[in-house]
Fold this protein.
Amino acid sequence: MIWKTIKVGFHRLGSPPNFYRLCQRFSPWLWGGFFLCAAVGLYQALYVVPPDYQQGDSFRILYVHVPAAWQAMAGYVVMAILAFIALVWRIRIAEIMAMMGAPIGAAFSVICLATGSIWGRPMWGTWWAWDARLTSMLVLLFIYLGIMGLYSAFEDKRKGARIACILILVGLVNIPIIHFSVEWWTTLHQGSTIRFFGESTMHYSMMPPLVWMTIAVKFLFAAALLDRSRNEILDQDRRRRWVLEHAGVNR
Amino acid sequence: MIPEFDYAPYVWSCYGLFAIIVAWQIVQPMIQHRRLQAEIREERALTAGEYDDANP
Amino acid sequence: MTPTRKKRLVLVGLLVIGIGAAAAVAITALQSNMFFFITPTDVHAQTMPPDRQFRLGGLVMAGTVERDPHSLAVSFTVTDGAYELPVTFNGILPDLFREGQGVIAHGRLGEDGQFHAHEVLARHDETYMPAELARALERTGHPMEANIQPGPTARQRD
C-alpha cells in the first residue's frame, strides 16, 4: 500500500509539467535561504571572527574555501545517487537532475581550487603543488567537465545522459580519495580540521560562519539545480504539447 | 566600514571570486530561460503561420 | 521490482564495486609515489642517491635557524622527533616559516650531509584559534606553538 503511494507520488513528480511547476515554486525560496544564510555567514566571517593566531586574517579565506570544497564533493554524491536511480529505474527527471548538477559542481570546484591557490601563495609559499589532496581535487573538476562534455556530445539527450551517468558512478571513487588523501599520504595540505567523529581543532568562536556558509552553499546548489533542470526540461520538451499549452511561455 | 586585514588582497580576491561565480549561477539560468521562451514562442508562431518576418 | 530492473540494479552495483576494487589496487600499487614528502627518518632508513631530488618534510627545530645578515641565505634543522637533518637555503621564506613550524624543503642531499634546498614551503597544522587566545595561553604558560625538542639522538646520515 505505502509502496504504491510512493510510486504514484514519484510518477506524479516525474511528469514534466509537474516537475516544471515544482521547480518554479521552490527555486525562489531556496535562493532566499541562500541569501539569508550567506548574509549572516559573510558578516560573521568578515566582521565578527578574530584573526587566527598563526595565519592572521588570511584564514578568513577558509569560509569560502571549505564550504565550496564540501559542496563540490557533496554535490557529486547527490549526482551519483541520481545517476544510480536514473540507470536502474530509467526515471527521466533523475537523468536530467544528475546532468544539471555537473556545471554547479564544477563551479564549486573552481571556487575551491582558486581560493586554495590564493590562500596557499602567502601561507605555504606556492600557488600550487602536485600533492595528493590538490591533485585529486583537480581530478574532480575534470570529472565534472567530462560529464558535461559527454552529455553535450550526444544528439540523443537520453542516451547521452545514461552514458554520462555511468561516468558519474565511475568517478565516485575519487570522493573518498579526496577526503582521505591527507591521511593516507603525506601532503602539503594540512589534515582535516572539522571531524565528524572526535574533536575538531577549530576554536568554537570561529565555527559559526563556517556553519552558515556551509548551509548557504547547500541552498545555492539546490536552487541552481532546480533552475537548470527546469530549463533543460523546457529545452528537451519544446515541441511537446504541455510546453505549448502552458509552462509560462506567454508570461 | 570595510575592515582592514593583513593579506587584504588575497582575502578580498577570494571573496570577490566567490561573489562572481555565485552571481553567474543565478544569471546564467535566467538568461537561458529567456532565450528558451523566445525560441518556443517563435517556433509556435511559425507552426501557426503567424510568423512575421520583419518583427519575429 | 521487475526482472529487468533487478538485472540493471545488479549490473550497476557490479560496476561500482568493480571500479572501487580497481581503484584500490591502483592506489596500493602507486602508494610510494603518492607521498609528497619524506621525513628525516625515511632519509635515515634508506640511503638516498646523492643526486636525487626529493622533498624533505618536518618541523623546524627550535633554536637552529641561522640567517646570514648580508644575504638571503638561511640554515636550519628539520626534525620529525626521531631524526634530524640540517638544511641550507638561499631565497625568500614563506610568511609562516618560524621555529617549530612544519616545512617542506625541495632539494637534494649534499656530500656534506646537509640538505641543499632550492625551495622551502611552510606547512601549517589544522588548528585554528583566535590570536588573542593564543597570546593568553602563552602568558599562562601553555603556548600553542609546538616545542620541538631535539631527537633522542642527534644522529645524522652516516
